[in-house]
């Protein structure tokens, strides 16, 4: 059995053994295709993240890239608008989108939810979230592992999170919510 360490020829210092050499093959050429593939994958993933962030901000312009730290382990876009709420949108390490918003007017959330998903998915009633009674509404999609959680408050505000959904679903919700909030803004 060869020793774990061998003495270097020029310095006499212990060194780790290098990778095995195969007859007729250069070690570097064996490693490069795999390294190039991995670098290509990282580049594609970075492009996917950047593209998702671009779609998020196009749909909901209040989102800001100033503070990108997030528990999703990937960049987050945050927003705060007085009278409209605050929150974040991010992409997790599986390429699924998450939004977590606080204190958003119930009428805007109701309009956006009705446009994107219809009414009574969460037993909120036939009028959708715009007419929902105060309380907590929760839905888990067993097929996609998506989670939807809404806290409707008595003051007419909603705190909600939509997690682990496709990016296009998050973009549709952000776009619908932006238009609903814009309709409520004074002219």
How would you characterize this protein structure?
The chain is of the alpha+beta class. It is built from three helices and eight strands. It has a six-stranded antiparallel sheet with strand order 3-4-5-8-7-6. It has a two-stranded antiparallel ribbon with strand order 1-2. A hairpin with a 5-residue loop joins β4 and β5. α2 crosses α3. The N terminus is likely disordered.
What summary fits the major beta sheet? 6 strands, antiparallel
Spell out the helices and strands N to C: EEHEEEHEEEH
- The strands making up the biggest β-sheet line up spatially as 3-4-5-8-7-6
Rg (CA only): 25 Å
- In total, the number of strands is 8
- State the low-pLDDT regions, or none: 1-10, 18-25
Given the structure, what is the number of helices? 3
Average pLDDT reading: 81
Distance between the termini: 82 Å
Overall morphology: globular
